[in-house]
Design goal:
By secondary structure, the chain is of the alpha/beta class. It has three domains: about 210 residues, 3-Layer(aba) Sandwich (Rossmann fold); about 210 residues, Nucleotidyltransferase, domain 5, CATH 3.30.420; about 45 residues, no CATH class. It is about 35% helix and about 20% strand.
Length: about 550
C-alpha cells in the first residue's frame, strides 16, 4: 500500500486510521516495554526541539523524572517551577504516553492564554510525529486545538475558563501557568468547573506554574506543602537545571532585574508592583483555614467575653459584579486581628443588613461602620430603623475637619455610616498600610490577602488591579479609618472603660446610700439610716 494511502492527509509522519501494522518481534517487545514504563518511553522515543541542537531525544533531568513519576503515582499534582525548565514539555510527554496506551481517554490542556495552550499541544504533536509507526495510533482529527486518535483518545487545547471544558468528562487535565490566569476568570473556573472535574474517581489534575503573586495557585501550593489538600507538590529550583550556576544567575539578574529574578527563578510569591502594602510585608502575611463556615461567613476566631469588636461593611448592588463584603476585627488591643469575614456577589441589599446585624450581635454587639456611597445608605438605614442595631457607628460632618466619629454627639450634621470621600480613603489607606507593615493588624483570610496583593496605585489613589476585586480591602480601610478616630480609641480602651464603669457604679451607690440600705421587706420589718435612726415598717389599715 502506498505511503499516500497509509498516511493522514498526506502527512508521511502520521499514520491514518484503519491502517494495520504488522509487528516484528522486536517492535512488539518495545511496544510492551513502553506501555509498562512511562520513563522508558519518554527517554527513548520522545523528541523535543533544542534551541541550539534542533530536534533531539528527551533525556529527562532528575527533576523532570520526578515530575512524571509524581503525575503517574498521584491523582493531583502541583509543580512550582522557574521559567525555562521544560515543565510543560515534561507534562505533555507523560500525556502522550497516557493517550497511546489507554483507550477512550480525554485530556484537556488549559493555559492562561489559548495561544499558549495550542503551543503546548504543538509540542505533543511534534513528539507524536517523530514516533515510529508501530507506536502510533491512527489519526482521525489533527489540528491546532484538537487531536482524536483511532483508539478513542482525544486531546483538546484551550484557555482556562469557566466554559472551556464544561460538561465534558476528562481523564487528565493540565492547568498550565495557573498563577497567570486573571483572578476573576480563575474564580469562575474554580467555582463552576473545578468541583466537577476534581470529584471524579480517577481524573488526574496537574497544576503547573511559575509564581505570580498571591492568588489561587499560591493558595493551592501553600496548602499542598502543609498537607491541607490532596495535591502532591514538587518544587523545582533554578540550580536543578544542569549548566545553571552563579555566573548564569548573575548574568540573568543583569538582564531582567532582581525583582523579576526573585519571582521567576527563586520562586518567591511577591505581589504586584506599586501595591499599597509593600512586597516584603505581603510576603509575610499568613492565611489560615476558617474554623467554621456558616451562612457565608468564614470564622477564624469565635467571640470572647469582654472583647471589643468592630466591623467594616462594604456594599454592592447584588448583581454578580462586585461583592458585598465585611470584615470583623478584634480591636481590644494590638495587634488587631481579623476574626471573621463575609463575601457575596449576589446577596440583595435588602437581605444584607440582617447578615451584618446577626454577625455583629454575636461579636459582642460589635461597632458597625457602613460605607454609605450608593446603595450603602439603604443598608445603614435598614440596620438602624428596621433592625434597631444599637452600635451602628454615627459619623458627624464638621466642615473643614471632614467626617468624624464622635458618637453622634458632636456639633455638625450626623449621618448613619460614612461617605467614602477622597480624604477618608487617604486616611484609611495610610492607616491600613501602617497597621499591616508594623505588624499591628493580623489578616487571617486568604481572599483578603489576595486582594491586598492586587490593590495598586492608580491616579493618585489605590484600587483593584485589572480583573481583580477590592471589596474586602475596602472593608479593612473602613476599620483602619475608624482606628484613627480619638473616640474609637476611647471606647476600645479597656482601662478607660473599666474606670468609667467603676465611676458609674459609685455614682449609683451615692444616689441610693443616703436613703439607707433596705432589706427585703418580706424578711425584715425595719431598716437603719447612717445616723442610726431606725425605721419600722408597718402595715397601713
Amino acid at each position: 500500500m502506498s505511503e499516500e494511502l497509509t498516511s493522514y492527509h498526506g502527512n508521511p509522519l502520521l499514520k491514518s486510521a484503519g491502517v494495520a501494522h504488522n509487528f516484528t518481534q522486536e517492535e512488539l517487545d518495545e511496544y510492551l516495554k513502553c506501555s509498562n514504563d512511562h520513563v522508558y518511553f519518554i527517554e527513548n522515543y520522545i523528541k523535543i526541539v533544542h534551541v541550539d541542537l534542533g530536534i533531539i531525544p528527551f533525556d529527562l533531568y532528575d527533576f523532570q523524572q520526578k515530575m512524571v513519576n509524581t503525575i503517574h503515582d498521584n491523582r493531583f499534582s502541583i509543580f512550582c517551577t522557574p521559567r525555562q525548565v521544560g515543565k510543560s514539555t515534561t507534562v505533555v510527554s507523560y500525556f502522550l504516553w497516557y493517550v497511546l496506551f489507554n483507550e477512550d481517554v480525554n485530556i484537556a490542556i488549559l493555559a492562561n492564554k489559548g495561544s499558549l495552550a495550542r503551543d503546548i499541544l504543538s509540542r505533543l504533536q511534534l513528539a507524536y510525529e517523530n514516533l515510529p509507526k508501530f507506536l502510533q495510533q491512527g489519526v482521525l482529527i489533527w489540528n491546532k486545538g484538537n487531536i482524536e486518535l483511532e483508539n478513542g483518545s482525544k486531546i483538546i487545547a484551550s484557555s482556562t475558563s469557566s466554559s472551556a471544558i464544561r460538561g465534558g468528562s476528562y481523564n487528565m487535565i493540565l492547568l498550565d501557568e495557573f498563577a497567570f490566569v486573571p483572578p476573576n476568570i480563575a474564580d469562575e473556573f474554580m467555582a463552576s468547573v473545578y468541583p466537577t472535574i476534581s470529584s471524579g474517581k480517577s481524573t488526574k489534575i496537574v497544576v503547573v506554574s511559575t509564581p505570580n503573586g498571591l492568588n489561587h495557585f499560591y493558595k493551592m501550593w501553600e496548602d499542598a506543602k502543609e498537607n491541607k489538600n490532596n495535591y502532591a507538590p514538587v518544587e523545582v529550583a533554578w540550580r536543578d537545571v544542569p549548566g545553571r550556576d552563579d555566573a548564569w544567575k548573575d548574568e540573568t539578574i543583569r538582564n531582567i532585574g532582581k525583582e523579576r529574578w526573585a519571582q521567576e527563578f527563586e520562586g518567591e510569591f511577591v505581589g504586584g508592583t506599586n501595591t499599597l502594602v509593600n512586597a516584603s510585608s505581603l510576603k509575610n502575611l499568613v492565611f489560615k483555614a476558617p474554623i467554621e463556615q456558616k451562612g457565608g461567613i468564614d470564622v477564624y476566631e469565635h467571640p470572647k467575653e469582654g472583647r471589643v469588636y468592630a466591623i467594616g461593611v462594604d456594599v454592592s448592588r447584588g448583581e454578580n459584579l462586585d461583592y458585598s463584603a465585611f470584615s470583623v476585627f478584634d480591636a481590644t488591643e494590638f495587634p488587631y486581628r481579623q476574626v471573621a469575614k463575609y463575601r457575596n456577589s449576589s446577596i440583595s441589599p435588602l437581605l444584607y443588613p440582617s447578615v451584618v446585624a446577626s454577625c455583629g450581635q454575636k461579636y459582642n454587639d460589635a461597632y458597625v461602620l457602613v460605607e454609605t456611597n450608593g446603595i450603602g445608605q439603604q443598608v445603614a438605614d435598614v440596620l438602624h430603623n428596621d433592625m434597631e442595631y444599637d452600635n451602628l457607628v454615627l459619623i458627624t460632618s464638621k466642615g473643614r475637619a471632614g467626617q468624624v466619629f464622635d458618637g453622634g454627639f458632636g456639633k455638625g450634621s450626623t449621618q448613619l455610616g460614612i461617605t467614602m470621600s477622597k480624604k477618608v480613603k487617604q486616611v484609611g489607606c495610610s492607616m491600613l498600610k501602617d497597621l499591616i507593615e508594623s505588624q499591628k493588624l493580623i489578616t487571617n483570610d486568604f481572599e483578603t490577602i489576595r486582594e491586598l496583593s492586587s490593590f495598586v496605585s492608580k491616579a493618585h489613589s489605590y484600587e483593584a488591579d485589572v480583573g481583580c476585586h477590592d471589596d474586602l480591602v475596602m472593608s479593612m480601610l473602613l476599620f483602619a479609618w475608624l482606628t484613627s478616630q480619638p473616640h474609637f480609641k476611647d471606647i476600645t480602651d479597656l482601662d478607660l472603660r473599666r474606670r468609667l464603669l467603676e465611676e458609674k457604679m459609685q455614682a449609683l451607690e451615692e444616689e441610693v446610700l443616703p436613703f439607707g440600705f433596705i432589706n427585703d421587706a418580706q424578711d425584715n420589718e425595719s431598716f437603719v439610716e447612717d445616723d442610726g435612726t431606725v425605721w419600722n415598717i408597718v402595715d397601713l389599715p
